[in-house]
Design brief:
The complex is a heterotetramer, with 2 copies of chain A and 2 copies of chain B. Helices cover 21% and strands 32% of the residues of chain A. Chain A contains 2 helices and 5 strands. In chain A, strands 2-1-5-3-4 form a 5-stranded mixed beta sheet. The longest helix of chain A is centred in the middle third of the chain and has 11 residues, at 32-42. In chain B, 46% of the residues are buried. The mean pLDDT of chain B is 95. Classes of the chains: A alpha+beta, B alpha+beta.
């Protein structure tokens, strides 16, 4: 079974990927970590960034399990203020 | 609140004030001249709004303060322009100072906002 | 500066700003509602002006700050009105916070200003 | 020899004395402490106040010697801010 998740990119990650977001069709039961691995295999430059992730607009641990239509965001450490 | 517009401290203070406040401490972050032209501020809006709201609730729980307000700008900002303002109103000043320092420290740790320095004009030639 | 007039934070911040500042911390003291009608602020003007100037020089020597401004009001003030504002601009926020807390602590110790609470209207009948 | 000094009063001290300032003609060589003693003997209520003094608009120790035309101010502990 497949599911769809939306991945959003911010800051340096967006520059590397060249897009604001993309939709991925992945195996059911995938975790945040699996999405990151997928992205790194497609965009090896991402390996140079300390990656932080969120799920549905909240910080998410790497082993967080994803569901259909979840929104995952990937970004470098924040630097506001 | 995340906004592209600049803000007025006078208006924000006026909105924040309550009769039980004796002290209002504010932190204003501005674009500092480090040989840059300015800054591009990138924000993950939905998440930043939630994190800011959470931060404000945190401060109200952790400290003896009456009200808290945070405004962070996004977009292109020139040297000297305002980036962020944090206002804390409390009965007593020590609580206002503590909460205000806590808020800017935590904001820099938690809220998904990124600043990117824009190179000086001369460097573009 | 000692003045009877109210002040604008926006104007004071604008006057204070320098390109090398990344952080401006302000302390605003306001008349707090403790069942009073307001406050009468009495000032020994010549001495207060000197002590305020000395305090500002002190902060510039003791802390890594770029500029400091203090405005204290005198006369009759109602609940919610501004009493004093202290602005500190620095490269880095920690220095601005430290200097601002130092200044309000010292002001309360050294500057010849006296606040007298005015009783509530009901108490006058 | 006599000298003239001006004494100013602030806050609670002004309320007790009932005047903003007065000119005193005192013995040469008098110190701040002597002025305070003079004032207390004239206005016993002042004994109830912790008195602080300045000379020529600067905080002054009690044993500060005064000169002709000096301005002495007498006031309770400050409470601004």
């Amino acid at each position: 079974m497949k599911m769809k998740v939306e991945v959003q990119f911010f800051a340096r990650c967006r520059e590397i990927v060249g897009e604001k977001k993309k939709e991925l069709e992945v195996e059911e039961g995938m975790r945040v970590k699996d999405i990151i691995d997928l992205l790194i295999s497609e965009y090896p430059e991402l390996k140079k960034v300390k990656l932080i992730a969120s799920r549905n607009h909240k910080y998410a641990a790497l082993n967080t399990k994803l569901k259909e239509r979840d929104v995952v965001a990937v970004f470098p450490p924040v630097s506001g203020g | 609140m995340i906004t592209e517009e600049d803000f007025s401290m006078d208006e924000l203070v006026k909105k924040l004030k309550k009769p039980e406040m004796g002290a209002i401490v504010t932190f204003l972050g501005v674009v500092r001249d480090e040989g840059i032209r300015g800054m591009e501020v990138d924000v993950y809006d939905e998440m930043a709004d939630e994190e800011l709201a959470k931060l404000e609730r945190d401060a109200l729980e952790k400290f003896e303060v009456e009200a808290v307000e945070i405004v962070h700008r996004k977009g292109s900002l020139k040297v000297g322009e305002n980036i962020v303002v944090i206002l804390v109103g409390a009965k007593h000043r020590k609580d206002a100072f503590m909460a205000c320092e806590y808020l800017i420290d935590e904001l820099k740790e938690r809220v998904p906002i990124w600043k990117k320095e824009l190179e000086e004009k001369s460097a573009q030639n």
